Amino acid sequence: MNAAVGRSGRQQALKSTKPVFLGHQGTAELGAAAVGNTYINLMWFFMVGFATALDTLGSQAYGAGNLRALRTATLTGGLLMSALMGPMVAAMAEGERAGAVLFGQDPVVSLLMGRFCRHLIPGMWPLAWSVVLTKYLQVQGEVLLPSAAAVAAFLLNIAGNVLLIRRLGFVGSPLATSLARWVQLLLLVASVCLHERRRRRLARQPAVQDLGLSRAGVSPSDMKGGGAQDVEGAPLLQAPALDKNAVPAVRCGAEGAKQERHSGGDAGAVEQTSAEVDVTVVVIARADSRAALFDQASGCVQLSSSDNVGGYFDGGAPAIAAATEAEGEAWSRDASLWREAAAELREAVRPAALGRFLRLGVPGGLGIIFESVCFELSTVLAGRLGAVDTAAHSAMLSVMAFMYLSCPFAIGIAGSIRVGNLLGAGQPEASRIAGLLTVGVSGSLMSLVAAALLACRNVFGYMFSNDPRVVQVIARISLFVAFLEVSDGLLGSSHGVLRGCGHQITTAVATFIGFWLTGITLGYLLCERAGWGLDGIWAGIAAGDAVTCAVNVGAMARIRWRAEADGAAARLQQAGPHS
């Protein structure tokens, strides 16, 4: 959870880098970057919400241990995000016209906005795939690697802005951002490769361990007949005083058994210990050694090394088939890596896979759009009230956005992954507890933020302006913002829990009811009709946030967790067999 919070905060800080540096280029440049970011965010926020489908499908697949379904969902998400990026890039290419027509900017700012948007285009596809790969690692509990990639991209973006703005001027800032996004993608690809290599290595270890520390239970009569029926794995008892490459062997016979030790690869002396046991076959030791089986009737039969096991008893029946089955499957998977990748790609583009992702991704994207556009419209309303109110509104809006993305939204991501993992694993009660903890932690933290804001609200405005009028307005609207912080803490976290269950439609409906039917409508009426001004706008936003929060929490309280676990199992069954 801490990593999710930090990563979300760094992503928000990455967006703040461009205005910090471009503010020194001039007012027109700063305005063009601000309007350009708003224009791009109106489209990008849909992509962010669309990618939340992977929070559901990926976390549940991993919780169930179905890695193939996880990889398929990731490929489906990446391909759909790439396809949706086409119209977005086309709209960005028309940034100059959008600045003049949609935002009413003068020709100079519109021209700069068009250049700003066009130079961000090279980094948009890497950004989309970075979101997908980050979620792929997140749902598996891997947070360190994507966090390191985000930090590297953030630092590179700062350095790039310093160097490229000095050399190229205004366009250096968006080019630095595009470069940082490419580097982040390459780092994430390397992170995924490292993660997969480590996972495959760990997956092979149990097979090698079982191969080296198992005893096959067969009777002497089975040995004589060449059969290996009723083979069972059992712990191998070995004396501690052995060379590290020593290989256990067994002398077989009807009277009992003698256990012998050979140094790997050496045909020298044999150390013998008697053992009056019925179980007579000891199967293999180390991967870099060789094993031998001795029989009183037929003598020594040499087995191949453990990485290419092929030893047989008298009649040719495989002595160690059961012990080597798991290792054989691991090597088979490595040998058919490209065949698996092709099969998963075909699965990812099947209509059923695309439909599963779209059913969750589209409402997820709409929910984010409903919320973000609401706040953009509030800025338009505040802009009609004068420079002082606009400055105070923008300052508090930036604070609220930073706190939301850094705490409840990030905690909601962690909660959605945890809830999805547990539902995929078939643990409904643990999922319910995880959901309650997610909401409780987020609500408690944001309550502390609200209390701190209220305590220093009379001086808080000096962080943004030395104008006492702006400071006074900020102090006044801090009352609404403090209430918002508490409801945001519950809203963002409950939103995440619902995503983990696959209820993106519920969250989209709740956001529309809360922010549009309540927030925007009430804010406009109080601001324009009742004459409350900026207070009316923030009262409307607070009311809309509270309604959205109430609907989300109410929906979460009505979840039938056993049915959710069954639904996750059915969804994974449709996705295909385990890898």
From TrEMBL:
GO terms for cellular component: membrane. Keywords: Membrane, Transmembrane, Transmembrane helix. The keyword Nucleotide-binding does not apply. One of its GO terms (molecular function) is antiporter activity. It comes from Gonium pectorale (Green alga). The chain crosses the membrane at residues 39-57, 69-92, 144-165, 171-194, 360-381, 401-421, 433-453, 473-493, 505-525, 537-555. InterPro entries: MATE_fam (IPR002528). The keyword Transmembrane helix applies. Belongs to the multi antimicrobial extrusion (MATE) (TC 2.A.66.1) family. This is Protein DETOXIFICATION. Signal peptide: none annotated.
